[in-house]
């Protein structure tokens, strides 16, 4: 039985145009995201088979397969909700205060996030996260779907910088994609994610 399922988008494939085309959204959600869901379920099934047979020779590979595919599933699930039609602008409320406290100003944060996103070498994500140890916000580059994530951080805002997320619309001009994406950021969702983390203790 499948454990993970492909979530429905909270908007139509064309809802984010002209910033992200319906064609990219359809391929991204129905093909790429679905592949991660299927991959995570397959890894779980193979681990169950290995336990039944008492054959754990491939368990290391299966654990890596699960980490990669589950990362892809969770990252995209956050990414879809981080965006909305007629969104963008500057944040308000707790997330605005947290950004100002951690980065000095929204403009300073935005420039830092742009730098994180456009300088990723290869495939990965630009991430704004809550550091559960310091209580502050941090940015970082996540490579592939799970690598280089600082321990103790919980994602608030994620931008997919894999080529499949933008190439049909922006070719290899990452900066144009990032500039357009700011018009879609759903700060209400980001604020809600921050509020849900209050009181969470890692250590």
Task: Explain the overall architecture.
- By secondary structure, this protein is mostly helical.
- The protein has two domains: 22-81, Fe,Mn superoxide dismutase (SOD) domain (Helix Hairpins, Orthogonal Bundle), CATH 1.10.287; 94-196, minor pseudopilin epsh fold (3-Layer(bab) Sandwich), CATH 3.55.40.
- The chain has seven helices and three strands, in the order ααααβββααα.
- It has helices at 22-53, 59-81, 94-103, 106-118, 167-170, 174-181, 187-196, and strands at 124-131, 137-143, 153-160.
- The chain has a three-stranded antiparallel beta sheet with strand order 2-1-3.
- Helix 1 (22-53) runs antiparallel to helix 2 (59-81).
- It is globular.
- It starts with 21 loop residues before the first helix and ends in a 7-residue tail after the last helix.
- The mean pLDDT is 96.
The quaternary organization reads as single chain
Which segments are poorly predicted (pLDDT under 50) over 5 or more consecutive residues? none
Top CATH class of the largest domain = Alpha Beta
- CATH fourth-tier homologous superfamily of the largest domain: Iron/manganese superoxide dismutase, C-terminal domain
The percentage helix is: 40-55%
**Percentage of β-strand residues:** 5-15%
Number-wise, the strands total 3
In total, how many domains does the architecture comprise?
2
As a whole number of angstroms, the C-alpha radius of gyration is 18 Å
Structural class designation = mainly alpha
> N- to C-terminal separation?
34 Å
Output the strand order for the largest sheet.
2-1-3
Instruction: Briefly note the CATH topology name of the largest domain.
Output: minor pseudopilin epsh fold
Overall form: globular
- Averaging pLDDT over every residue, what do you get? 96
Q: How can the largest sheet be summarized?
A: 3 strands, antiparallel
Total helices: the number is 7
CATH architecture of the largest domain: 3-Layer(bab) Sandwich
Order of helices and strands: HHHHEEEHHH
């Amino acid at each position: 039985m499948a454990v993970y399922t492909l979530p429905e988008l909270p908007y139509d494939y064309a809802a984010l145009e002209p910033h992200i085309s319906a064609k990219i959204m359809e391929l991204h959600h129905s093909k790429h995201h679905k592949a991660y869901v299927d991959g995570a379920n397959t890894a779980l099934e193979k681990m169950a088979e290995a336990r039944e047979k008492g054959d754990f020779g491939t368990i290391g590979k299966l654990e890596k397969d699960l980490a990669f595919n589950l990362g892809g599933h969770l990252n995209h699930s956050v990414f879809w909700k981080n965006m909305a039609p007629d969104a963008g602008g500057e944040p308000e409320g707790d997330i605005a205060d947290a950004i100002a406290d951690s980065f000095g100003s929204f403009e300073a944060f935005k420039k830092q996030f742009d730098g994180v996103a456009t300088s990723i070498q290869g495939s990965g994500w630009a991430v704004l996260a809550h550091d559960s140890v310091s209580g502050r916000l941090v940015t970082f580059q996540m490579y592939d779907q799970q690598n280089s994530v600082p321990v103790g951080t919980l994602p608030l805002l994620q931008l997919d910088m894999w080529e499949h997320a933008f190439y049909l619309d922006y070719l290899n001009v990452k900066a144009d994609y990032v500039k357009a994406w700011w018009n879609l950021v759903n700060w209400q969702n980001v604020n809600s994610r921050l509020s849900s983390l209050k009181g969470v203790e890692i250590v």
